[in-house]
Sequence to fold (100 residues):
Amino acid sequence: IKGGSLKERKELREIGVNIGLLFQTVDDLIDYKGDSSIVGKPTKRDKKKGKATLVNLLGYNDSINIAQKLKNKLDNKIKKYGKKSSDLLDSLEFILNRKF
Fold:
């Protein structure tokens, strides 16, 4: 990254931010509908606390759609890095499909 151009660094930063957004969106979905015994942590706490999560603002189904679109966008940006990006693509799949 250090040797990359400003444009490359900006793109990689955007990828990182979007991975964080994907993770947080799925985490909010898990909190909303997850089973504590499967997830391994307490669930349904965000709504009780009145947190302004994507799920609470837009609803469960719209949040799932947004997460899927974000993952697809990330896939397209990351795939251009070839074979060396396969582990990161697998990680995105894991993030999106965590059990809840």
